């Protein structure tokens, strides 16, 4: 039984009987469950809810379940992920391992195997039991695991890679002005940055949060006053 602050598991499973079985098992052990049978809805649920752990079937309609994990990892989202599959193909297993999954479960598996995998996944979260949010102002917070903003209504707003890199840079250097050159080096990396592109990036963050999250210091750089 998971007795700490309730974790939320996103369950993406094509087989309706297995999906209900997994969901009931997790719910009965104190977990919140979001469930679907396809990747498109899974992406929507992930984008709009706080998700601590993912349980994903690799045999999804019209999609390879690994595609869902690849999409997250490409955005540097490291949510602990458990794979459920009927495949024993070693090449699939190796790719899943390279995507840094938590566990690879081959169907059919025991209830105890799923619960044990969930416990292992929960220990990969900050503090071993829940996602650590960084409090912002006006009821907003930053979720470093899912790289998203949690607003005052509890809705998760997904950030682009440049958006969350800039937020993380500013949060690591609170109340310090980050020079344009440093922002270009960290956020744009090997590409050149224009001031217009930087302003567009900041506007996008403000639109997803609130106007005073980032302040501009003309001719110098940006900072956050958190």
Describe this structure in words.
The protein is built from eight helices and 14 strands. It has helices at 16-28, 39-48, 65-74, 90-98, 111-122, 161-172, 180-188, 195-208, and strands at 8-12, 32-36, 53-57, 59-60, 63-64, 81-85, 103-106, 134-135, 141-143, 148-150, 156-158, 178-179, 215-217, 221-223. α6 (161-172) packs across α7 (180-188). The chain is α/β, with parallel strands linked by helices. The chain folds into two domains: 8-128, Rossmann fold; 134-223, Winged helix-like DNA-binding domain superfamily/Winged helix DNA-binding domain (Arc Repressor Mutant, subunit A, Orthogonal Bundle). The mean pLDDT is 87.
Short recap of the structure:
The chain folds into two domains: about 10-130, Response regulator (Rossmann fold); about 135-225, Orthogonal Bundle (Arc Repressor Mutant, subunit A). The protein has eight helices and 14 strands. It has helices spanning about 15-30, 40-50, 65-75, 90-100, 110-120, 160-170, 180-190, 195-210, and strands spanning about 10, 30-35, 55, 60, 65, 80-85, 105, 135, 140-145, 150, 155-160, 180, 215, 220-225.
């Amino acid at each position: 039984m998971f007795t700490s602050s309730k974790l939320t598991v996103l369950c993406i499973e094509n087989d309706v009987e297995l999906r209900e079985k997994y969901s009931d098992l997790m719910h009965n052990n104190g977990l919140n469950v979001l469930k679907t049978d396809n990747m498109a809805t899974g992406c929507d649920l992930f984008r709009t809810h706080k998700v601590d752990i993912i349980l994903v079937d690799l045999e999804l309609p019209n999609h390879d379940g690994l595609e869902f994990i690849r999409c997250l990892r490409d955005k540097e989202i490291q949510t602990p992920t458990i794979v459920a599959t009927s495949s024993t193909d070693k090449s699939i297993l190796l790719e899943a391992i390279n995507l840094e999954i938590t566990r690879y479960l081959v169907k059919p598996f025991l209830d105890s195997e799923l619960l044990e995998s969930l416990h292992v996944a929960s220990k990969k979260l900050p503090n071993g039991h829940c996602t650590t949010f960084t409090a912002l102002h006006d009821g907003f917070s930053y979720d470093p695991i899912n790289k998203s903003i949690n607003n005052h209504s509890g809705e998760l707003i997904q950030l682009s890679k440049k958006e969350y890199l800039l937020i993380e840079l500013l949060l690591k250097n609170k109340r310090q002005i980050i020079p344009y050159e440093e922002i270009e080096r960290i956020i744009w990396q090997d590409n050149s940055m224009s001031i217009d592109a930087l302003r567009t990036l900041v506007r996008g963050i403000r639109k997803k949060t609130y106007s005073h999250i980032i302040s501009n210091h003309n001719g110098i750089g940006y900072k956050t006053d958190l």
